[in-house]
Amino acid sequence: MSDSVHETHLQELRRGTVVLACLRLLTRPDYGYALLEELNGRGFDTDANTLYPLLRRLEKQGHLVSEWNTDEVRPRKFYRTSPAGTRLAATLTDDFHTIAQAIDLLPTTEPKGRRP
After folding, report:
1. Does the structure show a pLDDT above 80 at 34?
2. Which listed residue, 52, 68, 71, 108, has the most CB atoms within 10 A of its CB?
């Protein structure tokens, strides 16, 4: 498999996990750029064009709350997981573990040339 094909599928696989990662990481308030850095540092490769719309959508759905911090020279919008977001994160974590266990039970693929 070429690197670009692998990267495309890896991005698809990670896309759903970024929501769960955000909900779990934002149990402590943080602003978008710092969250972006933390996600990337933890292997959830994403970019600002993906993250900021996701944060706005999660806030609109009631899973995040936000407030502006104007104490610094540059105002920053801090996000935090709401009680509804905490419940969603717990449910998604359970679902993720269930899916991972189901995948572990699937047969592995045979290397090329080893078909009966």
Report:
1. yes
2. 52
Burial of 79 (0-12, 13-18, 19+ CB in 10 A): buried
Q: Which domains does the chain possess?
A: 3-104 (1.10.10.10)
Q: Is 50 exposed, middle or buried (0-12, 13-18, 19+ CB in 10 A)?
A: middle
Strand, helix or coil at 2?
coil
- DSSP-derived 3-state class of residue 78: strand
C-alpha to C-alpha distance for 59 and 45, rounded to whole angstroms: 21
% of the chain at pLDDT higher than 70: 93
Q: What's the CA gap between 65 and 26, in Å, rounded?
A: 10
Alpha carbon distance 116, 34 (integer Å): 52
Give me the count of residues in the chain. 116
> What phi, psi does 9 have (nearest 5°)?
-70, -35
Closest to 77 in 3D by CA, of 26, 113, 5, 40: 26
